[in-house]
Amino acid sequence: MRTKLLTAAAAAITCALVTPAAAQQPARAIVSIYHAAPGHQIELLKWLANQDRAATAAGVGRAQLYVHTDGDSWDYLMIAPVTTPEQDAAIEAAGKKLGIEAGVRASIDLRKHISSHTDTFVRGPMSAAEVLAAFGEK
Predict the structure, then answer these.
(1) Of 101, 57, 51, nearest in space to 80 by CA
(2) What domains sit in the chain, N to C, each tagged with a CATH number?
(3) Please, what is the Cα angle at 108 between 106 and 110, to 5 degrees?
(4) Would the N or C end of the chain have less CB density within 10 A of its end CB?
């Protein structure tokens, strides 16, 4: 499953690189796959929920969370918008107002609750037909 996800992400990135400039570019996103540390599923979910609270308070779109039910070994998959430095600063400021760890300290706090994670930048969502069209295929 993880291989399929990474293959799809790579295809989306490749498509983004070959899409003509005149065409509407799909949104950029970051796909994160989390493996919770043993016994830390609830704490990880609370950490992720706090990040959503800070993003919402800053006016930035929150992430979409998917929960593993069967198949590969990941626990949670998140798809979030890629943020600008200005949005990152707004999220950090909103987090501080809400009493949520921000910046480097948030990264340290996250690592207490995961055994591993990956981040992959993608463009989408797109249909298979849209990806084919970007390659000049039908």
Answers:
(1) 51
(2) 2-134 (3.30.70.100)
(3) 70
(4) C
